[in-house]
């Protein structure tokens, strides 16, 4: 169960990185762009909403079954937990989430503007 808890925590970190930097990997992939925009929306809802993230619930469930207390257990779980759950204020995290969304959406808007400009030139 400890391994599963570590895997869920690692996946949570990858998910956070995907939400933050996903626009860098979506160029020329419309289905991936749509998934990333949905991920951004979900990230904002999860940060601003009153309910916990499903990945957090899965981590807590796995850690409880493995007998892991917060910040105990193996090296990987200890440090991944600190990366995924930094000791920052909720309002600061919400501002950071908004900035991430604005930057990513600006990338998408720039791509859309280029596409429309190039499409106009071609016709």
DSSP summary, beta strand count: 0
Structural class assignment: mainly alpha
Strand content: under 5%
Helicity, as a percent range: over 70%
**What Rg is obtained from the alpha carbons, in whole angstroms?**
18 Å
Q: Give the CA-CA distance, first to last residue.
A: 59 Å
Sheet with the most strands? none
Number of domains: 1
Unreliable runs = none
Shape: elongated
**Number of helices, counting only DSSP H or I runs of 4 residues or more:** 5
- The whole-number mean of residue pLDDT values reads 84
Secondary-structure element string:
HHHHH
Keywords:
123 residues; mainly alpha; 5 helices
Describe the overall structure.
With 123 residues, the protein is an all-alpha fold. It has one domain (2-122). Helices cover 77% and strands 0% of the residues. It is built from five helices and no strands. It has helices at 2-21, 30-48, 54-66, 75-84, 90-122. α1 packs antiparallel against α3 and α1 (2-21) runs parallel beside α4. It is elongated. The mean pLDDT is 84.
What is this structure's SSE topology?
Blueprint lengths: L1 H20 L8 H19 L5 H13 L8 H10 L5 H33 L1
Helix pairs in contact: 1-2, 1-3, 1-4, 2-5
Short summary of the structure?
The chain has 123 residues and is an all-alpha fold. The protein has helices spanning 2-21, 30-48, 54-66, 75-84, 90-122.
């Amino acid at each position: 169960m400890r391994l599963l808890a570590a895997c869920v925590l690692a996946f949570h970190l990858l998910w956070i990185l995907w939400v933050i930097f996903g626009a860098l990997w979506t160029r020329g992939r419309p289905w991936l762009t749509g998934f990333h925009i949905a991920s951004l929306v979900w990230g904002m809802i999860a940060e601003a909403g009153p309910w916990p993230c499903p990945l957090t619930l899965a981590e807590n469930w796995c850690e409880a079954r493995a007998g892991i207390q917060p910040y105990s257990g193996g090296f990987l779980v200890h440090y991944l937990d600190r990366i995924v759950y930094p000791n920052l204020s909720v309002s600061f995290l919400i501002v950071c989430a908004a900035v991430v969304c604005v930057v990513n959406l600006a990338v998408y808007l720039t791509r859309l503007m280029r596409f429309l400009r190039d499409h106009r030139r071609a016709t």
